[in-house]
Design a protein that fits this description.
With 233 residues, the chain is of the alpha+beta class. The protein has 7 helices and 8 strands; from the N terminus they run βαβαβαβαβαβαβαβ. It has an 8-stranded antiparallel β-barrel with strand order 1-3-2-6-7-5-8-4. It is globular, with a radius of gyration of 19 Å.
């Protein structure tokens, strides 16, 4: 049984609307984090992600109900202008606390024939080649540097992003292992971009002086699937 992580970025105090819509289509509970948008006015007109407080809603859903949940969220937000964005990420490993006995089935799937595998491969290649292919670039830096990273990303072609306040939890040994300094206050910058812009943006951010020192930040990227602009445009 496959799972997806559905992420919606919407105006502050709108996270419950997204969560309730998802529940109405069969999803379980979710998690709402608070961030702030960094988009320019031009991007605001397209995505509704301006320099304001945002709710970031994380919901784990089964593949089998993904379309129904996405449709329910789109319907709930269709009358709201420039409401936000929604996308999904593959979640191959998912274990619920208190359900360890069930976790053995979560990563397994039915055996498939070679013909099915070839079909899936072909389908995956088609998806990768579409113009609607997006990447989520995740940048974790010490507090105060997310705006610098966003400015560099914007010069390289990014529209805007969302900054989430965070804190480090590493022990001294962890810091040595992961190469990250132990600085409690962190910022996580999430930027959604078309895949063809990813390399230039990552290169621009890693060229910043704040990335020159070892352990000053990390960047990782995910393919964002089912990218949807919510609300009226």
């Amino acid at each position: 049984m496959g799972y997806k992580l559905l992420i919606s970025i919407v105006p502050h105090d709108s996270g419950e609307l997204i969560a309730n819509a998802a529940k109405s289509a069969g999803a379980g509970g979710g998690t709402i984090a608070m961030g702030r948008g960094t988009a320019s006015n031009g991007v605001l007109q397209l995505l509704g992600l301006g320099d304001t407080s945002k709710d970031i809603v994380y919901i784990i859903i089964k593949d089998s109900i993904k379309q129904a949940v996405c449709d329910a969220i789109k319907t709930a937000s269709e009358k709201k202008a420039h409401f936000g964005v929604m996308f999904t990420l593959d979640t191959p490993d998912f274990i619920r606390a208190g359900h360890l006995g069930e976790s053995q089935d979560l990563g397994k799937s039915e055996p498939v024939s070679n013909e099915s595998k070839e079909s899936d491969k072909s389908k995956g290649e088609d998806i990768m080649n579409t113009a609607n292919n997006y990447q989520m670039i995740n940048i974790i830096v010490n507090k105060g540097y997310a705006e610098d990273a966003m400015a560099a990303a914007r010069k390289a072609g990014a529209g805007g992003g969302t900054i989430i306040g965070a804190r480090g939890t590493a022990k001294e040994g962890d810091a040595a292992f992961f190469g990250m300094k132990i600085v409690p206050e962190k910022e996580m910058l999430m930027i959604l971009v078309p895949s063809e812009k990813k390399a230039a943006i990552v290169e621009a951010v890693t060229a910043l002086p704040c990335f020159a020192e070892a352990g000053s930040g990390i960047i990782f990227c995910n393919e964002a699937q089912d990218f949807t602009v919510l609300g009226k445009n």
